[in-house]
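Running low. Invent one:
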Amino acid sequence: MIKRIHIALTDQKKVLCLARASDLPGLVQEDEMVIRDWFYNIPRGLESFLKQNPNEEKFFIKAFAYWVLCKTVPGMEENQNQYGLLKRKLSEFSKQLFRQLRNLAARIALQVRGEFFKEFV
């Protein structure tokens, strides 16, 4: 079960979204280093949603990573059909939870963008 959302930025400019820190070694290459980590508590209600929909945990972390990526990369537009079933289930479960997740993704994207562009300042 997801307790926290872990975002990692690597020296190869990869942004990784993880449900568990133990997933990190399988996602980075041998010569790749994590240069920045962020950890976020999950919004209230997400744990209940995932308990009711246990098959959605894997899709949730991928969808959340996609939402962060779309907000991080300038000019990248989100495909509204991407993860549509998950979005509908989340909205039906709680519109407030869905808004909180989207707002968290946008806030994370701002922090990641700040790290990307920090070297140019």
